Amino acid sequence: MANILIAGCGYIGTALGSLLAAEGHTVWGLRRRPAILPPDIRQCAADLTSPGTLCALPPALDYIFYTAAPDTHDDVAYRAVYVEGLNNLLDALIRQRQHPRRLFLTSSTGVYAQTSGEWVDETAPAEPTEFAGILLREGERLLLDGPFPATVLRLGGLYGPDRAGLIEKVRRGEVVGGGESPVYFNRIHRDDAAGALRHLMMLQQPDSLYLGVDDEPTELIVVLRWLAGALGVPPPWQAESSPLRMPRHGSNKRCRNVRLTASGYAFRYPTFREGYAALLTEQAGAC
Ligand SMILES: NC(=O)c1ccc[n+]([C@@H]2O[C@H](COP(=O)([O-])OP(=O)(O)OC[C@H]3O[C@@H](n4cnc5c(N)ncnc54)[C@H](OP(=O)(O)O)[C@@H]3O)[C@@H](O)[C@H]2O)c1
């Protein structure tokens, strides 16, 4: 059984931690407010941006997952978490003479700046033009050029329990989707993000880079219409301009998960249909 640290143990990190703890691994969740972690994850109170708080990491770590996310969407917060925080953790591991077998970083498909709806895989150029993608790329390089074996998983947009606000919006008829040219969104259910990380940890020799997205990049309007059908409410209408029309980073591409699936990972929710259907069933059960 392995000794595992999840640095930035939030939405994905907690799902991953509970998955690994249930298999008998020892799991530490590092965050500034660890008291809210579930009891199966051991608390490690630290601030990644404050090196002094990283002096006493749990000893003899086998695997480390870096799943921290900034509090705000700005240059300073992104640099603090994805570059400085990661650098601080690497320094602390070196100073404490730790020899982890591998580190994993959750990056984002936002590092791809492609705009024409083209298919993208791990070999495609990742040349972001805005600060979030640029700083994520800097963090990726820091990790991959660093002293430990490392793997980056570039995730699509996360959805899942507690992150299914789209359902309520469609139910209330609040959303507008569309526009004439298709804009594709790449997504992954929380449990598949956690499942893929666990899967990569179990591989003898994982690659250094994987895309973590489901099988079907989809236009948002397609998801909205499917949800409206499932909920039995009128379908959202098309509009030329909609706040939901473009991903925040303004790119438009379809990400492939072939490397991840070829490595043996089987998606629990291969498309948004299975993922949202499960969320709707959970919601109905909770009523
Ligand atoms: N959300 C998405 O749609 C999406 C898409 C693509 C990629 N990703 C990537 O996936 C990863 C995880 O996302 P998520 O949604 O699971 O994140 P999240 O729930 O927002 O969790 C981030 C965690 O990081 C901790 N944290 C933040 N700053 C910290 C610091 N200075 N020191 C220690 N801990 C800190 C926070 O806990 P405290 O506040 O207690 O410190 C929080 O629990 C991120 O790397 C993100 O970039 C997310």
From TrEMBL:
Q: Name one Pfam family in it.
A: Epimerase
List the GO cellular component terms.
Answer: cytoplasm
Record-level Gene Ontology MF annotations: aldehyde dehydrogenase (NAD+) activity
Please state every residue range assigned to the domain named NAD-dependent epimerase/dehydratase. 4-168
Superkingdom classification of source: Bacteria
> Which InterPro entries does the entry link to?
Epimerase_deHydtase (IPR001509), NAD(P)-bd_dom_sf (IPR036291), NAD(P)-dependent_oxidoreduct (IPR051783)
The protein's name is NAD(P)-dependent oxidoreductase
